[in-house]
Amino acid sequence: MAQKDNGKKQILLRISNSLWNDLAKWAEDDFRSINGQIEYLLTECVRQRKKPGKSREE
């Protein structure tokens, strides 16, 4: 089956049942799918990391 290129990459993500349940509840509260919630959270984390003047402890 050919996959349509929509500009997004697919990944396999393994998470615990408890984290899945927490994400599912949060996604429902925000009217998102679990996939949409994960993408939203990752986007926000990357955006925060890119903020100017933010120090990094590495």
Automatic annotation (TrEMBL):
GO molecular function: DNA binding
The entry's keywords: DNA-binding
Biological process annotations from GO: regulation of DNA-templated transcription
Keyword DNA-binding: yes
InterPro entries: Arc_rbn_hlx_hlx, Ribbon_hlx_hlx
Name the UniProt record assigns to this protein: Arc family DNA-binding protein
Taxonomic source organism: Massiliimalia timonensis
